[in-house]
Amino acid sequence: MLKQSKGCKVMVVVTTRDEGIANEISIVRPYNLPQLSDEMCWQIMSQKSKFETRDDKERLEPIGRDIAKKCKGVALAAQSLGHILRSKSYGEWNSVRTNHIWNLSTSTDASSSHEVLGSLLLSYNLMPPYLKLCFAYCAIFPKGHKMIKDELIHQWIALGFMEPSSIFSYWQLGESYIVQLLEMSFLQHSKAVVEWYDTNKIVTLFTMHDLVHDLARSVMADEFDLAGPNCRYAWNIDCTKPLKSSKTSPEKLRALNIVGAGNRGPPMFHRDAIVPAKYIRVLHATVNSNRLFVSISQLKQLRYLNAPNIHGPVDFGCIGMLQKLNYLNLRHCEELSALPDSIGEMEGLMYLNLSGCPNLKELPDSFADLKELVYLNLSNSDNVLGLPNALADLTKLQQLELTACRTLRGRPDVIINLTELRYLRLSGCMHHIFDSSSTDQTESFIDSICRLPNMEHLDLSFNGHPLISIPENASCLRKLVLHGCRQVARLPECVAKMDRQILFGLLPLFSITTDDGKCYSNLGFLEHVNPHKLNIKKLENVKSPEEARSVRLIEKHRIEEMSLMWNPQAERSVDDMELLRELVPPTTLQKFEIYGYISASFPDWVMSIGNYPPNLDRMEMYGLPNCKSLPPLAQLPPNLRVLTLEEMECLEEWNTTYCSGEDGVNELMLCKLEQVNIHFCPKLRITPHLPRAASWSIRGSDNVLISWAESVSHNDASSSFSGVSTTLIVGRSKVPLHQWRLPHHIPALIALHTYNCWDLTSSPEITWALQSLKSLKLDSFAQSKLSEWVGELASVQQLTINRCMMLEELPGNMRQLKQLQSLKLNICCSLRQLPLWLGELTSLKKLIIWKCSAITTLPNSIQQLTNLQELEIHGCPNLEQWCEAEENKPKLAHIEKKIWQSTIFSPKRAATPASCRCSQLRWPLLRKKIRK
């Protein structure tokens, strides 16, 4: 059966049978999805599965890459499978790869991407049962619907999808389920929005990708369709019609969402709109009708009631009859004036939202009996009485919202006794709590709140008076909100220790802003912070040097890492050099990064850098377009380990010495350098000597390669490189290899990696400079032949030729590489055969051939490689077939580890026919019934 589906070209419904049960699954053909390469899908899977941390990753990688290919370029598929495979064994990875869900046919179109749903379906089948229930339930929401986290979890709780735990609460279990679905990409974060109806509270929203939604509906089958006989969960039911008119037996319903018909006043609510659903557990009603509450009183099994925005005269007394409720949301019910005394009999009530109910005058005495209450919101219900007595006994409260609440005057002690409290919102109500405007009172109160053992989030926003004074122990909070507090009497340095969002934004990243018409920015807010890391961006917004001076960075002795960032293209009020003069770092600084600085010169402290951050071990300079010379880095004490210079088009010189003593002797410093990165600095030359470093990365900076003397005394150079084994990485070079002079100055060069270099022709001189090489990697060069110099590097032990699409043959003199132990050929599409002399590489231990599809056979001389321990072949179908042929197996019998077709062979195991190597999985049950 074919039918159109939003977000899809074609939906094919395939019916299968397992133990006599018909199961329908929707095989989806996506369109307009970003198509990623197989490699990118594998990278996503690798990250999601934590592949790099596994001990068996070499065995798993071919399998993983095969699975990634089945994702057909869809990131969602790679994400979900990657998460599922995280804790799976080698055998389970292989079972996923060979599962015959991949073999389902979607249409006569051979290019149809049925594997996309296959990956999601596999991910679903591998879920634990409890998670399947929670995921499938999300099918009741329309495509694109934004699910509210709190509501979704409480609906799961109400429907009994969670097993009781002696360790974790229902809420903790629900949050863990959300995390698992997010990690699988079965749920996705929607951008948090301000819910104005909920007193500006920022809520967490989730959405579901269309493909995932289609899967959820396929799994749910007819359990969400009111037109069918098995409906259990119904969405957007018209309240003007009787429920019994449906084909569904109303007694089967467990969740119901009802709406009014139109927006012209209260709808006509049919008396049988919900009453027949007498076993319902979840009711979400956006219906403004008194008859709704008359009907609700008969739903004795109801556990979740969300009925906001009820206007007009309503009798709320019936709510007290719903003794099994665990969730009750009556926000913005303007006519709610009192709660029934019987509310205290709701022994399982966990969530209660009474915000925006201005006529609510009093809480009954029985309110204190709600011992399981975890969430209470009375924001903007600002006339309610009896709150202090009620709060005193709600010992399990974790979230309390009291924005604009007026009825706690003189009784702040009831809050500071709530030891389980994690989230407290006192926005705009501090002056209602305290009898006077004493700063001491507020500081003592806030201090007591911060001492609560579980407190994480404190919102004191929009409290204009009394003065807010933040105590030292506020550092224990994860989030402190002071928006709109114009009178903060005290803000200690300790707030900088907070891990997450605090005061004015995110630390360590601090973005400088300024309001139109003001003569100052928010930079001064950093005066009292002293974090370990501080990244200041948008420095172009600073209005005056005095602002920077007031921050007194030099006195902040906790800062170890600091970044100063300008937008190079933005207009400035202050010259970069004038501003940088006031941003002197403390002596504790270990890592310093400067980006987007457009002045040509540096202030005095930078030019005397050795006197300021003596512990600096990492310096990075990016995007300095007008800088012609570096600060005297050689003056730094010998601690600098990493130096990065990038996108400095005008930079001409890096002097690596400094003048020592009265006789003016030049000394070479920077003796602890480990890594030097010089990228896109086309004019730069290093003089007079090359510092020693374990790793050099030169990209788009050819002058560094060629601006050296043609010869060098190796005795002179080797003294500075004593004990250093060096790696040189060169990328995007436009000059031929034989013109490179830099290698002559690195006598300890043991590894060379080139990529996107135009010309790798050599000369005897450069070959001599590379005689100590142990590892050589040639990446992405366009020549059809490999230069002869490669075969002249007698000391090379590892050789990798990667993404050399035009390479047709290996040079004959490579037979001289008698020390070669590892040979890797990757994506060399034009390479048609391996030479017969391959057998002369008698030290070879590992041979890896990836995606060289033109290679169809191995030379017979492979039998001469008696030291060969590992042979890995991937993406070479003809070559893999050659290896599988019975007549060729004896030629490979001496190799201990052989990997192709994502299978590992070992002579210790009996040979297994190819047709039997992959376990055949029984077709899984595709739809699990959701029971009450």
Structure notes:
The protein is of the alpha/beta class and 932 residues long. Among the domains are: 2-126, no CATH class; 133-220, Winged helix-like DNA-binding domain superfamily/Winged helix DNA-binding domain (Arc Repressor Mutant, subunit A); 508-616, no CATH class; 617-767; 774-895, Ribonuclease Inhibitor (Leucine-rich repeat, LRR (right-handed beta-alpha superhelix), Alpha-Beta Horseshoe), CATH 3.80.10. 19% of the residues lie in helices and 19% in strands. α20 links the parallel β35 (749-755) and β36. α1 runs parallel beside α3 and α2 runs parallel beside α4. The radius of gyration is 35 Å and the shape is flat. The two termini are 31 Å apart. The model is unreliable at 1-32, 105-116, 193-200, 261-265, 714-720 and 902-932 (pLDDT under 50).
Question: Structural class given helices, strands, pairing?
Answer: alpha/beta
Secondary structure: number of strands: 42
Quaternary assembly: single chain
What's the story with the biggest beta sheet? 17 strands, mixed
**Poorly predicted spans:** 1-32, 105-116, 193-200, 261-265, 714-720, 902-932
Helical content stands at 10-25%
User: How big a fraction of the residues is strand?
Assistant: 15-25%
Radius of gyration: 35 Å
Shape: flat
| Rounded mean pLDDT score | 80
C-alpha end-to-end distance: 31 Å
Put simply, the count of helices is 21
Pfam families: LRR_14 (PF23598), LRR_R13L1-DRL21 (PF25019), WHD_DRP (PF23559)
Domain R13L1/DRL21-like LRR repeat region: 526-648
Domain Disease resistance R13L4/SHOC-2-like LRR: 281-496, 767-884
Domain Disease resistance protein winged helix: 140-216
